[in-house]
Every structure is written in C-alpha cells, then in structure tokens.
Amino acid sequence: MKVSRFLVIAIVLGFGGSVLSSDRPPQRFAGPDPGEMDSVVVGVDSTYPPHVGRVEVRFCNDQPLLGVEVTLRTMHTAVTIDSVCFDDSRVQGTQYFGWTRDDSSGAVTIFAFSAEDGPIPSGSGLLAALELAYPDSLQGRTVAIDSTTILIDLIERTTGFTDTTMNGFVPQFSPGSLIIEPPCCQEYTGNVDKSIDGVVDIGDLTLLITHLFIDFDLVLPCPEAGNIDGDIEGIVDIGDLTILIGYLFIDAETNAPAACL
After folding, report:
1. In the sheet that 80-85 helps form, which strands lie side by side, from edge to edge?
2. In CATH, what number is assigned to the domain containing residue 56?
3. What is the DSSP letter of 213?
4. Which residue of 48, 87, 174, 181 has the fewest CB atoms within a 10 Å radius of its CB?
5. Do residues 52 and 158 both lie within one domain?
6. Is there a single domain that holds both residue 87 and residue 142?
7. Same domain, 114 and 227
8. pLDDT digits (tens, 9 = 90+) for 64-91
9. Which domain does 257 fall in, by range?
10. 29 with 136, same domain?
11. Rounded to whole angstroms, how far apart are CA atoms 202 and 43?
C-alpha cells in the first residue's frame, strides 16, 4: 500500500528523524550495529517483454527492531519501480508499513514501523518485492538496483534500521539487478521447451502434455510459445495440443504453429 503519511510517522517517531531548520540532512542512522552485521539484500531476477520485472528485497536482523527503512532506485531512468508488494513479508504484522515514491528521482522508500504491537523480531526473510516496468528497447540489458539517499522537504530518506533503544544504524547492503532478456517466443510458436536450436519436436509435445494433464504446477519455460493456436488471450489449452499433434504427425502445412503475438 502506498501510504506516505505513515512514512512521516515512522521518520519522526520511530526513526528519530526531524524536520531541519538548516540544509544539513539529519544523521538518523549514525549509530553502531549492536550485534552481528545486519543486512539488506536486493535480489537478481530476469524477465522479458511483455512481462513485468519482479525483484525481491530481503533483510536480516539479529536483534529486535522498531523500524526498517530502505530507499532504492534503478540505475537506468527508463526502468521504473511501479509498485511494491508485501505478500509474505516479515513486516506484515507491524503497526505501519508501506512505501512511497519520489517522482523527481524515481527513488522508492520501503518502510515498516512498530510501536504498540511490539518490535519486529530478529530473523531473516522477505521485506517486499519490487515490480518494475521497462521499455522493450532495453532487451539484453542488465539494470542495477541500488541504495540511495534523497532529501525531500528537508527530511532524509535513506537505508537504515532502528533498534529498541532508538539506536539508528546502517545495515550491510547488497545491490541487485534486473536482467531484461529478449522475448522467449521468436517469430513462431511451438518451441515450448525453449530449446536453443528453436526446433519444434517431440520434446515440445511431451512438455505440453505434462503441463496440461500430469503436472499442473509445471511452468512452461516459454508460455508464449505454447500458445500455438494464436489465442488472443494467450491461453495454453487443449487447442494448442491438437495443433501441435497435427503439425508433428498429420499435416505440418495445415497445422503450422501461429506467429508469436
């Protein structure tokens, strides 16, 4: 949820921040890490058009925390963090959590602040997942996602933890990246197993049968290539299997796989 007012509460109360009377940003996370080095790790993931990129942000803390703040940006202006998802996040039980975006810099701040309901317990796991948008022209590029510090209305937004003694400190940070690959479906459908040579053969048929009738949790390596009948909604079903059987064993010309959408 995008709730900027909760960020202000977290900064002023949970993180010991303040609105400045000068141009000097507050040093809210200048204290020492009280135990083993805590960490924030941004993942590495790959995607391809037309899919949205999704990169997880995880954190580890060896002592209870009152607050977590992570500010991130992509290192390419054309790649934007469109939304932040908290499904299965460790901070879902905290009093306030959310995210906010600075439109001028494209930076996103993810925050969690715990008060009456108790601190965030020590442990490790998911903080949130970033959903990223990108233009098709960036195929073949790897775009870094790194920590940043910005100043908005004389309030510093950065990356730091606050423990139960109100000590703010900076965790170890590992940047991540989004790898933007070319579309997996090249010209024509049928290469369901995403073989390097692009040949449509019995391997594709076997995989499609398994996907449709045996292992329903099996994710096709290239779902777009499984849309052999050219369904406008991209659904892979028995119609695609019928065409593939016809192409391989009956009449390849009249059962030719459709072009990639």
Report:
1. 80-85, 123-133, 53-61, 39-42, 172-174
2. 2.60.40.680
3. I
4. 87
5. yes
6. yes
7. no
8. 999 999 999 999 999 999 999 999 999 9
9. 184-261
10. yes
11. 36
Q: What percent of the chain has pLDDT over 70?
A: 90
Domain finish residue from 158, 180, 202:
180
Place of tokens 């940047």: 175
Does 50 share its domain with 93?
yes
Rg (C-alpha) for the chain, rounded Å, is 24
Nearest to residue 108, comparing CAs of 149, 78, 154? 149
Least confident of 20-24, 163-167, 173-177, 253-257: 20-24
Question: Is there a contact between 212 and 220 (Cβ–Cβ < 8 Å)?
Answer: no
Provide the whole-model pTM: 0.74
Q: Residue holding tokens 């908290």?
A: 86
d(CA 25, CA 12): 14
In which region does residue 182 sit, left (phi positive, over 0), alpha (psi from -120 to 50) or beta (all else)? Answer: beta
Tally of CB atoms within 10 A around 125: 12
CB distance 156 to 17 below 8 Å:
yes
The three-state secondary structure class of 51 is coil
Q: To which H or E segment does residue 205 belong?
A: helix 202-209
Are 13 and 130 within one domain?
A: yes
- 3-state DSSP assignment of residue 187: coil
